[in-house]
Design a protein that fits this description.
Rossmann fold, 17% strand, alpha/beta, seven-stranded mixed β-sheet, 42% helix
Amino acid sequence: MEPVIDPGLNSAVERYYDITLDLYEDLWGEHVHHGFWDPGETPGLEGADRHAATDRLVHELVDYTGVPAGSRVLDVGCGIGGPAMHLAGPLGCTVEGITLSALQAARANEKAEAAGVAGRARFHQRDALANGYPDESFGVVWAMESLMHIADREAFFAEAMRLLTPGGTLAVATWAVRDGELDDDERELVRQILVHQVMPDFSSLEEHERLAAAAGFTEVATVDWSSAVANSWDPGFAQIQQFERGPKVMRDLARRRGVDVLGFFHAGPLMKKGFDTGVITYGALRATKPRQDSPQAPPSGPTP
């Protein structure tokens, strides 16, 4: 099956991250993703601060999926390289990061150089579904909050299977939607989030499991981290209110960067409502590419 690549969507995602690169880095640091808290913790109070919380999410995904130290990793949707710094640093992995944004890739390479891991972490502007890497190039395919931007998720899982060595690990953390039917108000909330975050649609965690299994992965499992990450949209943690100083500031920002940048600010309240109502969920998926000597499942149907 040939992957379905939407050049219009890719261009929109590239533009969104180009124009918000410094906003994310100024407000959220090196990680362009959620934080992770234990039950009862709250941002900036008795709980972890924002940098510890976003670091924590990386560690949780490593632990949940069992990323082996020293692995060769493809980081799909690498952002400005925050997770890759941990993978290439303490874990000693060799990381190839890919992103649709040339500005993100350039900034990630700068950060790798500054962190002393440029020999183990390199970043490129490439499409996840047309990345140019040979078959069985990686021991781990890592996708932290990038799968939501890929419309053809069936093709993503097929590509991950192609790229992994036998026995290799797929590690995904993703925004998701509650499984089952949504009512009209819930669908409208999801629609607004998708528009402001430049995403085609959401899949449920259960649908991610089904797609991974259909692609041939084994040991497929998911975990729901919605309650652990929901504090990321607390107004104090998101820090978006720093820029809400009246319509003139927002108009000037939109004039300089284009109206798309305003989606960055609109997303916060929408995502908070999504988590509060249970419409938006968040979780991790782990899966394994079967080893070549693994026993195959018996064929279905009657035995001749």
